[in-house]
Amino acid sequence: MFPYLPHEDAISAPFWAATRERKLVIQYCSTCDQHQWYPRAICISCATENLTWREASGKGTVDSWTTVYRAPAEGFVPPYVIARVLLSEKVIMLTRLVGIESPACDQVVELSWQELSDGRALPVFG
Amino acid sequence: MKTPVIVGAAECDLGVTNKSILELQAQGVTRALADAGLKISDVDGIATNAISRFSASSLADYLGIEPKFTDSTFAGGSSFEMYVARAYHAVASGQCNVVVISFASNQRSAKSRSLGGVVEHHTPEAQFETAYGPLFPLSYYAMAAQRYIHDVPNGRAALSEIAISAREWALLNPKAYRYGSASLTDSELESADLISSPLRASDCCLVTDGGGAIIITNSEIAKNLKSKPVSILGFGESTTNTSMTTHRDLRVTGAKQSGDLAFAMAGVSRSDIDVVELYDSFTITTLLSLEGLGFAGKGEGADFILDGKTRPGGSFPLNTNGGGLSYCHPGQYGILLLIEAVRQLRGECGDRQVANAKLAVAHGTGGILSTNATVILGAN
Ligand SMILES: [Zn+2]
């Protein structure tokens, strides 16, 4: 189902470590009072390296979605639904929608998890 | 300051060629030079990509020349519109005198295209997006289309009209992959395979070999050449994202910035344009570019095109070679936008010629709507 195991690095390691406990954490800059996605070495508003991790509320809305009917690579099993979800933290994540019969833009969704084979997990929404 | 002009344009073989990339490159370059009345030894600038890691060096070596200017900006299909700007500056300043902008791909013969795209494990996209399994770049365009259809009443019909119109033009272009086929019917459009909803196979560009070249030199040299020079009146570009999550509004692309810059430089208005060549990697790409470039307001592109004005004989000739949807799509289509614009302005397009074409726009997009570049050309 999820054949691709993402690489991680020093910047993204805290995100992936948190997924082992099914916690979605997002970088936060206290100077700018804003979250950013994806994790980076600096805040993209003020360039500080002084970023912290905050646990996300897990609530969001569907910005847009698409049902994928062809496999992008070996091991993927379509059809499945890819989406851009706007979190209440005002960042957009790429994710999957699970257990939603007919998805719609602007629909309210909540965080759930899909396990990767190495014990990490991918945040998905439903 | 010298005045750069375009003096040559030609395609290499298109479709299914069973030729190598460099053989196709050599074809495109020599045909464009012959069109201009120049020789390989006259070339002192090269802009190209997608041959190898060192693409411009590869082509220079293959052609047996040692250029004073090279560029291998790799920004997907808009790279070639960007090269026009780079070459313009190089020729205007006198850094070099004859630049060849070229591209070739053998992706269909070589079966080198993958639906998942090229994954580079260290990038943020690979770390945070690849695992979910989007088609790349297709699923991003699909989400843009989904949002468009959700927000704009005639959105789905407008996407289909882009494909229908492109096919009508292709039926007039003997070099088009779909030349000799038939008009697209509603039932064909509705039954085409869904690839990444709402996009169906009929919303997606062809996968073919092909490419070509254009030649830019200064107006002094052009005076002694046989071809009719085409003026480079304006250009602009915009780079917005590589992640599928960075850009806030899927319906607003970098075409706004690139178009505004190009029109300001050219000093012409949208209504002055006679021929419009907009990258159609997917039907949604063209619709968003139409709006971004200001030919229609945001969300008004659908109604703008649904009266059929973009088809042959219409008041807004669009993608007059048949586009990436029905003519040729060799992976990076940007060079072919320029070649068609040049030919229309020189009046060489036969059955598909737009009468009295004096001003043309070529607008490229690359990646996942990541880059946009606009070029405005004028007849002499
Ligand atoms: Zn900050």
The tally of strands of chain B reads 11
- Give the helix tally of chain A: 1
- Contiguous uncertain segments of 5+ residues of chain B: none
How much strand of chain A?
Answer: 35-45%
Helix content of chain B: 25-40%
| Ligands, deduplicated | zinc ion
Global mean pLDDT of chain B: 98
Would you give an account of this structure?
- The complex is a heterodimer of chains A (126) and B (380).
- With 126 residues, chain A is mostly beta strands.
- Helices cover 6% and strands 39% of the residues of chain A.
- Chain A has one domain (13-125): Beta Barrel (OB fold (Dihydrolipoamide Acetyltransferase, E2P)).
- In chain A, strand 7 (108-115) and strand 8 (121-125) form a beta hairpin.
- Chain B is an alpha/beta fold and 380 residues long.
- Chain B has one domain (4-110, 206-378): Thiolase/Chalcone synthase (Peroxisomal Thiolase, Chain A, domain 1, 3-Layer(aba) Sandwich).
- Helix content of chain B is 35%, strand content 17%.
- In chain B, the strands form 2 sheets. A 9-stranded mixed sheet of chain B has the order 3-2-4-7-1-8-11-10-9, sandwiched between helices.
- In chain B, helix 10 (255-266) crosses helix 11 (283-292).
- The A-B interface holds A 2, 4-9, 12, 37-40, 63-73, 76, 78, 80, 82-84, 91-96, 104-106, 116, 122 and B 114-117, 119, 121-122, 124, 126-136, 139, 142-144, 146-147, 150-151, 193-199, 243-246, 248, 250.
- Bound molecules: zinc ion.
- Residues 29, 31-32, 43, 45-46, 48 of chain A line the site of zinc ion (ZN).
Keywords:
heterodimer; A: 126 residues; mainly beta; OB fold (Dihydrolipoamide Acetyltransferase, E2P); five-stranded antiparallel beta sheet; three-stranded antiparallel beta sheet; 39% strand; globular; B: 380 residues; alpha/beta; Peroxisomal Thiolase, Chain A, domain 1; nine-stranded mixed beta sheet; two-stranded antiparallel sheet; 11 strands; 35% helix; binds zinc ion
